[in-house]
Design a protein that fits this description.
Elements lengths: L1 E3 H17 L16 E6 L5 H20 L9 E6 L4 H14 L4 E3 L4 H15 L3 E3 L16 E3 L4 H14 L4 E7 L2 H13 L3 E7 L7 H7 L6 E5 L2 H13 L6 E3 L6 H7 L1 H4 L3 E6 L7 H12 L8 H18 L4 H12 L4 E4 L2 H12 L4 E4 L15 E9 L5 E10 L1
Parallel strand pairs: 1-3, 2-3, 2-4, 4-5, 5-6, 7-8, 7-9, 9-10, 10-11, 12-13
Antiparallel strand pairs: 11-14, 14-15
Amino acid sequence: MILRTRFVRLVVTASLLLVACSCTFVVPPPTDTPTALKLGLLLNYTGSPEASADRERAFNLAISHVNAGGGVLGQPVTGIAADATSDPQTAVAAARYLIEVEGVHAIVGPNASSAALPIAETVAGPAGIPVISPSATSPQLSTVPDNDFFFRTALSDAIQGPVLASLTRERGFDNVGFIYVNDAYGQGLAAAFARAWDGTLRSVALEVNQTTYLEALRESAGSGAQALVVVAHEEQALALIRTALDERLFDQFVFGDAAKRVRLVQEIGGTHLGGMYGTAGASAPDNDATPEWEAAFIEAYGALPVLAYVKETYDATMALVLAAQAAGSVEGSAIRDRLREIGGPPGYIVPGTPTGVGDGLRRLASGQAINYEGAASSLDWDENGDLLQGYVGIWRFTPDERIEEMDTIFVQN
C-alpha cells in the first residue's frame, strides 16, 4: 500500500499521541523481527499527473503482489510517494526527504532524466540507497558518478534516437526541423537522433521554462523543413504544436516519447494530429507474463494503461523487492549487490506476474537463484545499470483522438 507524504505525517502524529496517552499498552517488537522493506516512489505528479498516476498504480500493484506472496523476509512491504515536480532541485529535496525522514531503503523513480542525474550523483550514491528509474532515458545517466546505485528499466536514448530517426525517414521526410527541450532528456535524444540522421536537419533548443515558440519554430523551418520532430514535455509540446499550426509553419509532426499523451490529440484535435507517429519505450510483445499481468492490472484499476513506462515501473519495484529477499537484508548496498544477480541468468526464470512473484520469493527464501523476466522486458543490466536489450515502440495519434500502438522493435545496447 502506498501512502502519500501528507497522509503519512498525520498517521505519525496520531501514533505519537497514542503512545503518549497509552504508553502502558505499547509493546516493542521482538528484537529478531526483520526490518520491513520500505520503498519510495518519486514521480512528477505536478507536471505530469496523467503519466504519474498510471506509474503509481503499477508501483501499488507490485507491492500488492509481493505482499500477497508473503512479503520480503516475512514482512509486508510498504511504499510512500513524493512529488518530484518538474524542478530538479525540488526532486533532490524530495529524494532526501524519502531517505532521511521517511527512512526508505530504496527508491523507484524519478521519471525525468533532469532529476535523475543530480539524485544519482548527490543523493543515491552518497547515501548508499539504490534508485531505479522506470523512464529516465538520458545517455548522460550511463556515466553519472553514482557509486553504482542508479539503475533503470528503460532503454537509453542512445538507442531510441536512431529508431526515431528511422521512423522519421520512413514517414517520407528527408528535411526536418527538430525542436527539443534543453535538459538532459532533450539533449540526449537530440544528439542520438542527429548522429543517425542522414537528411537535412535544423535543430533548435527550448529552455525548460520557455513560453514563446514562434522564433524557434521559424528557425527550425528555415531550411524548407517538411515536418517538425517534437522532443518536449506535455505543456511545451501542446503550445509548440498550436503555434506551429496557427502560424502555418508546420502541419506534419513526429514525436518523441514525452509527447505520448492523449491530451495532445484531444486538445489539438484528431483532424490535425491523426496519423502523426512517435516512438517510446515499449514492453516485449511476446512476453509470457503479459496476459496475467494485464488481467491483474484490469482487475485492480478497470482498464489498461495507454502511456509508456508503466510496466517498467512495476519491474523497477519488483527488482528491488527480489534483490532484498535475495540479500536477506534491506540495507542499501546489500540490495544493490543483488540486482544484477536476480535480473539476469543463470537462475530459475520468474515472470512479472502475481503467481511468478510469489514463486520467486519462495525460491529466494530457500536459497535458490532466480532470473526475473519482467513484465516489460528482461532486466539484464550492464556495469552502468543500463539494460543490455529492450524494446522501442512505434505509436500514432488517431483521427478519433486515441493513441494506437503500431509496432515494437527489439534493440540491443
